[in-house]
Specification:
This protein is α/β, with parallel strands linked by helices. The chain has one domain (about 35-315): Class I glutamine amidotransferase (GATase) domain (Rossmann fold, 3-Layer(aba) Sandwich). The chain contains 11 helices and 14 strands. Helix 3 crosses helix 4 (about 105-120) and helix 6 crosses helix 10 (about 260-280). The longest helix has 24 residues, at about 1-25. InterPro entries: Class_I_gatase-like (IPR029062), Pept_C26_g-glut_hydrolase (IPR015527), Peptidase_C26 (IPR011697). It is found in: Secreted, Extracellular space. This is folate gamma-glutamyl hydrolase.
Length: about 325
Amino acid sequence: MRGLYVLLFLTVGYVCDALPAAYLKDPVNDRPIIGILTQEVVDDEMKPYGKTYIPASYVKYLESAGSRVMPVRLNLTFADYEKIFNSINGMLFIGGAVDLETSDFAKAAIIFYQLALKAYDSGDYFPMWGTCLGHQLLTVLVAKENLLTKTPAENLALPLNLTTAAKSSRVFENFPHETLKALTQEPLTGNFHHYGVTFETFKGNEKLEQFFSILSTNIAENGVKFVSTMEGKKYPFYGVQWHPEVNRFEWDPKVQYPHSRNAVRVSSLLAEFFVNEARKSSHHFSNPEDEEAALMYNYVPMFTSAFTSYNQVYFF
């Protein structure tokens, strides 16, 4: 009997010792850092404060789900961007109003896009997310041409028209049934755009059709059907034509920012989803000093509600 106890003890000890090695085989990164690409200032009211900017709502959105944020500057060298890419765990392209082919924002984005493609093909996970203009940017990067047409939905909160692909999607797989139902029935998505990719254009473009699954559509104010949510079929790239970050972190009373309980839940679930995608990346800074110096904590946002619809903005 004593021998049996010894055998059990040795067996359990062996299994317990083996578990860490098994986890290390595919580790989860619980200290993710997501980059947000800064964007050129184009509004005259904002120009006195900096050349590039990031609305603080995007930062809070990611931080609320357990990520830290690095602002990624424009006009750096390829070597600089490659070093940043190997240090962070994902990238978010924000909304805005710059040219999607000639702007410094677009030129920097294509470098990260190409690095992420190459990395994934070699077994290195690096997720990317585009919101509004960032969503449009992903379609330009994939299609290698600008396919945008007028799909106005300016200051308009809408429910989503989910496609059949949404039910099996990564983006919505962890949504509770009642929240997903609310997303199709209640105005939970804030839209602030003039242009988009129509459903017909998307389906008619072989590159987009092969690369992305359409998860939702909406009808613009001019009656045109546009793609409002998409995810990569193979690559961990995601786009929303609407703004999930505003549901919790923007409060201008003149703007239709959805703030209902369900709107807040949708925002939280999407932020958690993308941060959990970033946890799959093992990229890291070479030393703690460089990591600390890169983080958004080194910057102070400005209170901007007097001259923008954003409550706070980081200027660079």
